[in-house]
Design goal:
The protein is of the alpha+beta class and about 80 residues long. The chain has one domain. It contains two helices and two strands, in the order E-H-H-E. A two-stranded antiparallel sheet has the order 1-2. Helix 1 packs antiparallel against helix 2. The chain is elongated.
Amino acid sequence: MNTSSDTPTPLLCWKANIYPKHKRGIVWIVTMLSIIALLVLYSVLAGSWSFTTVIVMFAAVYWFIHQKAVDEREITI
């Protein structure tokens, strides 16, 4: 049984993002805003106010989550 408190020297060590941050171009933004607007218009015309609320909340949460910077983690082998 190894009882020493020395930690072994790592073979490899690097930093990496938790997930890749994708750049969203103007075409992507316009397309998503158009889809959201059409879904909201449809839900209002259909009288489905709960669906309207879900669409708006989903879009707001998606925007809020993707505004923060991507965290980096240190990986050691």
